TrEMBL record:
It comes from Streptomyces goshikiensis. NCBIfam families: PRK05617.1. It catalyses: 3-hydroxy-2-methylpropanoyl-CoA + H2O = 3-hydroxy-2-methylpropanoate + CoA + H(+). Gene3D superfamilies: 2-enoyl-CoA Hydratase, Chain A, domain 1 (3.90.226.10). Keywords: Hydrolase. Residues 20-340 form the Enoyl-CoA hydratase/isomerase domain. Its EC number is 3.1.2.4. The keyword Hydrolase applies. InterPro entries: ClpP/crotonase-like_dom_sf, ECH_dom, HIBYL-CoA-H. The keyword Glycosyltransferase does not apply. This is 3-hydroxyisobutyryl-CoA hydrolase.
Length: 351
């Protein structure tokens, strides 16, 4: 594998020793993923899987702000408005990459430092060695843009203890290191000022377990553990409406804040997300969940809330989306079911 690519530097590769390195290199865009980046990462991982000189892979983000903030949602906005196929093509390859990472035959070390959201979760949290720092902010915030957690996010959140994953899926809340560990979105905590030394040791060929033991520590306490009681009570309800009602009824300021956060999201996205997370729990392997997510994502392209949500949050930045339907009771069971409908012959995700 070449160590550089003069044609495309949005993702950099190095494999000069036992540790191959992927560096997402769009720091001004918080290392957001593009379709070409996804394809090149998949190609590199496939090559390294069969290379006996490579014993493990490490992925990191350029700059100080984060590993990856997700995909290029401006491009998704434009594609959805134009009724195009670029987003579906991108997701097909992105979800295949997520599956490849999950079943990778060698240790896959993800440095989840800083912002790790959406597609950033997809290229990290399915790995076998997931490292967070005190700067980590991990989230699946899709309901805020009229979308639904994808890249295997419903699989990850569905497997979180109790109802923690449902809470994160509906609110889109970002969690720090301790809560990421609690929710099984990460495995190890390493202070950010020790990442460089850890990386250097891995590049020099140090045994992975020994290197981790030298640098891991304990993060500052999170918030979810002490909120677990009302989270589990409220989010086990059958509907989003009942979840919100229970949250308001808790008498806890944090629960009230969660309810208000949920009510600001797309009503359709909320109901589809709740259904998707609960279905994911029953589907089993990640690959089956990704097939479901691909259906939901492609069907979301025809939903007015996706275009409107991105407009309000990213394009115009007025933070005042006009959801359609505007309220939870207006979203029917048939509306939700349409997101899970088969795409038709030749259009389904093949893993």
């Amino acid at each position: 594998m070449k160590t550089d690519d003069p044609v495309n530097d949005t993702v950099l590769f190095a494999a000069d020793g036992p540790t191959a390195v992927i560096t997402l290199n769009r720091p001004k865009a918080l290392n957001a993923l593009t379709h070409p980046m996804v394809l090149r990462i998949s190609e590199a991982l496939t090559a390294w899987a069969g290379d006996p000189a490579v014993t493990r892979v490490l992925i990191r983000g350029a700059g100080e702000r984060g590993l990856c903030a997700g995909g290029d949602i401006r491009a998704i906005h434009d594609d959805a408005k134009a009724a195009g196929s670029a987003s579906a093509d991108f997701w097909r390859d992105e979800y295949r990459l997520n599956a490849l990472i999950a079943r990778y035959p060698k240790p896959y070390v993800a440095l989840m430092d800083g912002i790790v959201m959406g597609g950033g979760v997809g290229v990290s949290a399915h790995g076998s060695v997931r490292i967070v720092t005190e700067r980590s902010r991990v989230a699946m915030p899709e309901t805020g843009i009229g979308f639904v957690p994808d890249v295997g996010g419903t699989h990850l959140l569905g497997r979180a203890p109790g109802q923690l994953g449902t809470h994160l899926a509906l609110t889109g809340a970002a969690v720090g290191a301790a809560d990421a560990l609690l929710c099984d979105l990460a495995d190890h905590f390493v202070p950010s000022d020790r990442l460089a030394e850890l990386t250097a040791e891995l590049l020099a060929g140090a045994p992975l377990r020994e290197a981790l033991a030298r640098h891991t520590g304990r993060p500052a306490p999170g918030e979810l553990a002490e909120r677990r009681g009302w989270i589990d009570r409220c989010y086990r309800a059958d509907t989003v409406e009942e979840i919100v009602e229970r949250l308001f009824g808790e008498g806890d300021p944090a629960a009230k804040e969660a309810a208000e956060t949920i009510l600001a999201k797309s009503p359709t996205s909320l109901k589809v997300t709740l259904a998707a997370v609960r279905r994911a729990r029953e589907l089993g392997p990640l690959e089956r969940v990704l097939v479901q997510e691909y259906r939901v994502s492609c069907n979301a392209l025809r939903s007015p809330d996706l275009v409107e949500g991105i407009r309000a949050q990213v394009i115009d930045k007025d933070r005042a989306p006009r959801w359609s339907p505007a309220t939870l009771p207006e979203v029917t069971g048939d509306d939700v079911a349409r997101f899970f409908a088969p795409l038709g012959e030749g259009r389904e995700l093949d893993l």
